Amino acid sequence: MGTVGGYVNAKDVSASVLANSQTSETGAGPALDLVVFSHLRWDFVLQRPQHLLSRCAQGHRVFFVEEPVMSDDTELRLDVSTRDSGVTVVIPRLPEGLVPEEVDRAQRALVDGLFAEQGISDYAIWYYTPMALPFTEHLRPRAIIFDVMDELSAFKNAPPELLEREARLLAAADVVFTGGQSLYEAKRDRNANVHAFPSSIDAKHFGKGREEIDDPADQAEIPHPRLGFFGVIDERLDVELVGAAADLRPDWHFVIIGPVVKIDPATLPQRPNVHYLGGKDYKDLPAYLGNWDVAIMPFALNDSTRYISPTKTPEYLAAGKPVVSTSIRDVVRPYGEQGLVEIADTPEAFVAAAEKVLAREGEAHTAWLNDVDALLAKTSWDMTWERMWRLIEDAARTRATATAHSR
Description:
Helices cover 36% and strands 17% of the residues.
């Protein structure tokens, strides 16, 4: 693991970085680095950022800068390490007790130090969080990308400054991506270059769930029928719906996979037929999923789920599993409207929808699966990334042209 250690003179480094970053003004070329600022941890759960940025790293240097970790250590430093995907993960380490302004100054100094040490001079900046603006607005990238993965302001414990910073970032961005159609509709009037990129799919990986695949040891003794969910377990999960459905069908077994965050685990429904198996590695998910009878998405209908576009929808379908979901807009459109996913919001309706798909077999199941495959064939993470990168190249060329004309 490499490190950028100690205290960095932000003023000196910043001047050097600015001088280097303005030397190239043509379109985005093969040497373009990508520096990403994210509220998510790279090693937490494999989701949209990992799918996209791992593909970028096949041809470009990618630096994924996480939110800072506070500790008793008085030294400012960055932990810098490269994953097998080729992405370089950067974790700022800051001492406890800093006020917000000091945190921003420290991160600016560390980011400038990273740019100097790694020779980052020809680059684009990709934001997942507007909270990074105060310590990055001095940089001069070839393009600014804002990937609006979620409506972060609606999440539990969202910082009060987030909306104001999001407005600044939407105004500054050269290109904006959204994680679903609903988010696109909410943001399209706030920037002239907004594009919807809903959740895509690694169909080959999750397609293993259609094969005969060994049942993982911690799931093997759970009786059938099994209704399963995997994902982050937080305020977006309708725990009351899960508990009520489990009560309605005590002979059904609900398998819940994923880490519990931002909510008290004690609030999760405890039933003999509800099984919490914890977080699992991405590579192991098809084995769990492949041995379920129904895949479920019992999301609460609240502000935090209003704009979500669950990546697990196409993942469940790629494994050939029938799906029951609450009426999340980006699930209803297109999956519910095309009859690929059953939509139900009450415990009784949820159970009835599960009974319907459990009974589907023979020609009806084959016809449904053919429709699923026809939709999934239209997208992949590879295709999504290629389209995104072309838009980034276009944005870099447009910015370069505008800069040249303003001189």
